[in-house]
Amino acid sequence: MFIDVHCHLTGGEYDGVGGTEAVLSRAREAGVKAFVVSGFDLPSSLAAAELAARHRDVYFCAGYQPEELKKYREGDLDEIAALAREEKCVAVGEIGLDRHFPDNPPVELQRELFVRQIALADDAGLPIVVHSRDGAAETLDILRANAAKLKRGGLMHCYSYSAEMTGAFAALGMYFSFGGTSTFKNAKKVHESARAVPADRILSETDSPYLTPVPCRGQFPNEPKNVGLVVRNLAELRKEKEEALEEQIFANAKRLFFRLKDL
Ligand code: NI
Which pLDDT belongs to residue 58? Predict the structure, then answer.
């Protein structure tokens, strides 16, 4: 039994592999019991909500990812807030900071929308899902400054920062999900973090269509059916029994994403 707590299934990336419905079917056959489809801007959040409405086992997040903020218009957050009230919306996300590319949206805008969406999640009584790249200390600072608004905690999706920092994020109520990157042989830092995360805070994801795990690395698109490869590798890294880790991940997912049902 697997759960993919972070995937993108509403784009055209799956047209060549039978489309989203076929992707969902293959994942179910592989034992995936629930999908959390993440929005990254307003249209993708609306599409994720629509997909969730059509499938019992699909849930969604609504939010504006930092790299997508060039498209942001005032008023978009009102629509995100409306989506956050839907019963299958499990979190506000993905939101955060991304300093990876020099032409990413301005840092001030990223910070402003990160903080405003944390407040939006708090108003909706939901956790957040954080996308953070090349900005560990700054992300931690923002979360600390807004700790009072993190009553429902959140998820550091595709966690790529140090093992040392996991304690500080965990103290703020954050969980940690690992995807394909954690299966890459040279990703020593991610391996150390995957070992360091407390048992009650670890989750599994694919970030499909990206970051296909070993041994399928390099294939595009990635699919949620591959989340089992991630979990098996996490169990090896942590020297845990795979079945025990699967159960632990399920319990963790239901605790964080309290709107998940029927698992
Ligand atoms: Ni994502």
Answer: 98
Decide: 212 and 226 in contact? Cβ < 8 Å: yes
Q: pTM to 2 decimals?
A: 0.97
Stated as kind and residue range, the H or E segment containing 62 is: strand 58-62
Which amino acid does the sequence have at 76? D
The torsion angles phi and psi of 4, rounded to 5 degrees, stand at: -105, 105
State phi, psi for 176 to the nearest 5 degrees. -135, 125
| Among candidate residues 10, 13, 81, 84, the one with its CA nearest the CA of residue 48 | 10
Return the amino acid letter for 260.
L
CA count, 13 A, side-chain hemisphere, 18: 8
Q: Tell me the C-alpha distance between 105 and 90, whole Å.
A: 26
- Burial of 73-95, coded b for 16+ CB within 10 Å and e otherwise, reads eeebbeebbebbebebbbbbbbb
- Ligand 1 centre distance from Cα of residue 210 (Å): 8
CA 157 / ligand 1 centre spacing (Å): 8
Q: pLDDT by residue (tens digit) across 66-99?
A: 999 999 999 999 999 999 999 999 999 999 999 9
pLDDT for 39:
98
Ligand 1 midpoint to CA 7 (Å): 6
Place of tokens 């039994």: 1
Cα–Cα distance measured from residue 64 to residue 25, given in angstroms and rounded to the nearest whole number: 28
Beta-carbon contacts of residue 131 (< 8 Å; ≥ 6 apart):
40, 65, 66, 93, 94, 95, 96, 97, 98, 157, 158
Q: How far is the CA of 199 from the centre of ligand 1 (A)?
A: 23
Which residues, in sequence order, are CB contacts of 120 under 8 Å at separation 6+? 77, 80, 81, 84, 92
